[in-house]
Specification:
By secondary structure, this protein is of the alpha/beta class. The chain has a single domain (4-254), classed as Rossmann fold. It has helices spanning 13-24, 36-50, 66-76, 101-129, 150-169, 189-193, 199-202, 208-220, 230-239, 244-254, and strands at residues 4-8, 28-33, 54-58, 83-86, 133-137, 176-180, 185-186, 206-207, 225-226. Strands 3-2-1-4-5-6-9 form a seven-stranded parallel beta sheet, with helices on both faces. The longest helix has 29 residues, at 101-129. The chain is globular and about 55 Å long. Bound molecules: NADP nicotinamide-adenine-dinucleotide phosphate. This is Short-chain dehydrogenase/reductase SDR.
């Protein structure tokens, strides 16, 4: 039986490309997001081109009940998930004290809570069957604080720490655990978060297809952390040598926190 891969945030950007890559690799896919039309269109094209099954499950992952409802739907359809790709996420540029309370809480629900709960719900059956694993989408933002985008940066620091901890816990089980950390990438994220208007973001952006391919290859090879693009790797490596008090001031300047 072919493996099944569930991808959250499959309706656009990196998640959409990851869904196509897993399907091209022969996996059945479960596509999760809020935008039903986009998911249905993607499922049709995947089934036509890749001859695998593509199931659409519509969910708003900021809803505290979403993960349990999603898991109930998987059980009802007798779908066993082998690979979980926690990709859904969003950011918001602006001062913590000025951005909407609800938007920032929803961000934590999607980027952190849903990712954690879904992993916890799906992991036992992966361990039972001894195959599959978890690919979490973090960000190079995980490596320093992000003034004017503090909650987003902190959420991605959580994703990295959680993924690394889980990887060690699962050592020897045969399961893969990988954190993909994109830098600026051409998707809906730039416009939605406000990051797209920053020069440092738009001039550096990689394509979603390149980023997804790096993540897919790194996950298949069971790499711990995958940072697509040499410029992003250089940035993260050099960040490690600079005191955090300085890196946060640099990010603050780049993200307009002093304006
Ligand atoms: N693009 C970048 O520069 C960049 C850099 C570093 C990390 N990342 C990370 O990459 C991941 C994918 O983002 P992307 O760049 O591909 O952006 P994107 O094109 O905006 O895609 C985001 C995906 O998340 C889904 N999503 C957002 N809120 C959701 C919710 N409440 N419930 C369910 N699904 C939700 C969206 O689907 P619906 O709107 O249909 O629900 C969409 O499919 C995110 O975790 C992001 O933080 C992106």
């Amino acid at each position: 039986m072919m493996p099944t891969t569930l991808i959250t945030g499959a309706s656009s950007g990196i998640g959409r490309d990851l869904a196509q890559l897993f399907a091209k690799g022969g996996d059945d896919v479960v596509l999760v997001a809020r935008s039903e039309d986009k998911l249905v269109e993607l499922a049709r094209s995947i089934e036509d081109e890749c001859h695998v099954s593509a199931t659409v499950l519509v969910a708003d992952l900021s809803d505290p009940n979403a993960i349990d409802q999603l898991c109930n739907q998987l059980n009802e359809r007798n779908i066993h998930v082998d690979n979980l790709v926690n990709n859904a996420g969003f950011g918001a540029l602006g001062k913590f004290s000025e951005l909407s309370v609800d938007r920032q809480t929803d961000m934590l629900m999607v980027n952190v809570v849903a990712l954690t709960r879904l992993t916890r719900r799906l992991l036992p059956s992966m361990l039972e069957r001894g195959r599959g694993g978890v690919l979490n989408i973090g960000s190079i933002a995980a490596h320093q604080a992000g003034p004017n985008m503090s909650v987003y940066y902190a959420s991605k620091a959580y994703v990295l720490s959680f993924t690394e901890g889980l990887r060690e816990e699962l050592h020897g089980t045969g399961l893969h655990v990988t954190c993909l950390e994109p830098g600026p990438t051409e998707t809906g994220f730039g416009e939605d978060s406000g990051m797209g208007r920053l020069k440092s973001f738009s001039t550096q952006a990689m394509s979603a297809a390149q980023v997804a391919q790096s993540g897919y290859d790194g996950y298949q090879a069971n790499e711990d952390v995958v940072i697509p693009g040499w410029k992003n790797r250089l940035l993260v490596t050099s960040t490690g040598f600079i005191p955090r008090g300085i890196t946060r001031k640099v990010v603050a300047k780049m993200q307009g926190a002093y304006e």
